[in-house]
Amino acid sequence: MQTRTNEEWLNDLRGQNQDQAIEDLRSVLKRGLTFALSSRIKTDLEAQVDDFIQDAILRILDKMDTFRGESQFTTWAQKVAVRVAFTELRRQRWKDISLEDLIPEDSGDFTPLVLADPSPDPEKQATQTLLSEMIETMLNEDLTERQRTALLAILQGGMPIEEVARRMDTNRNALYKLLHDARKQMRNRLLEKGLTPEEVLEAFESG
Fold first, then answer.
1. Which end of the chain offers a freer environment for a tag, N or C, measured as fewer CB atoms within 10 Å?
2. Could you say which architecture CATH assigns to the domain 100-204?
3. Of 152, 172, 173, 176, nearest to 162 (Cα)?
4. 123-130 contacts: CB < 8 A, separation 24 or more?
C-alpha cells in the first residue's frame, strides 16, 4: 500500500483512484479496529470489524469536508471508525430490550437507580418510601407519556440516550429538550411541595 499525504488521501478518495484508495483505507481501518475491539468482541471479531468498516467508510466519504488537516487523515478516519463501531456495539447491547421492559408496571417496583440505598435504617426507609411514592405520582400525573418513557428508560433502566432517541423515533437534540422539560416540571412540582431535588437526593444518600 502506498504512503499518502493528507491531500493525496482526499484527492484519491474523490477522484479516479477512489476504488484503490478505499481498499487501502479499508486495510488501515481493519488493523486499527481489530486492535481496538479485540478485548470487547469475543466471537466473530473479523466479521463484525468488516461490517463496522463498511459503515465507517460511508461515513468518512460523507464527512471528508469536515476534515481540517490538524492530524493525519488516517488518524482522523480511525476515530470516525471507532465511533461507528462503539455506537453499533451499544445498539446491539440493547437490541433485545424494549423501552417497556425498563419501565416498572406497578408502584411497588419504582426506585430510580440514582436513589437506590441498599441498607437504610427503618426511619430513613420510611422517608424513602414516602418520597418514592410521591415521585412516582408526579411521574404519572405531571409528565406526558413520552416524557415519562424517556426519563425512566434513562434513569431507571440505564439505556444510553442515543438508543432511547432511536427507539422513540426522534433525534438526540429533541430528546434533550424533552428531558429538560420533564426535569423542569418535576423540579417545579417538588418546589410546590416544599422540597428541592437536593433534599430528595439527600434522603436517599447512604451513611
1. C
2. Orthogonal Bundle (1.10)
3. 172
4. 124/203, 127/203, 128/203, 128/204
Task: Quote the pTM value.
Answer: 0.49
Please, what is the end-to-end C-alpha distance for the chain in angstroms? 61
> Residue type at 140?
N
Q: What is the CATH number of domain 6-94?
A: 1.10.1740.10
The domain segmentation of the chain, as residue ranges, is: 6-94, 100-204
**Which of 7-10's residues contact partners 24+ apart within 8 Å by CB, and which partners?**
9/73, 9/74, 10/64, 10/67, 10/73
Q: Using one digit for the tens of pLDDT, what is the confidence trace for 77-110? A: 999 998 888 877 777 766 655 555 555 544 444 4
Q: Which DSSP string do the residues of 62-114 spell out, in sequence order?
A: HHGGG--SSS-HHHHHHHHHHHHHHHHHHHHHHTT--TGGGS-SSGGG---GG
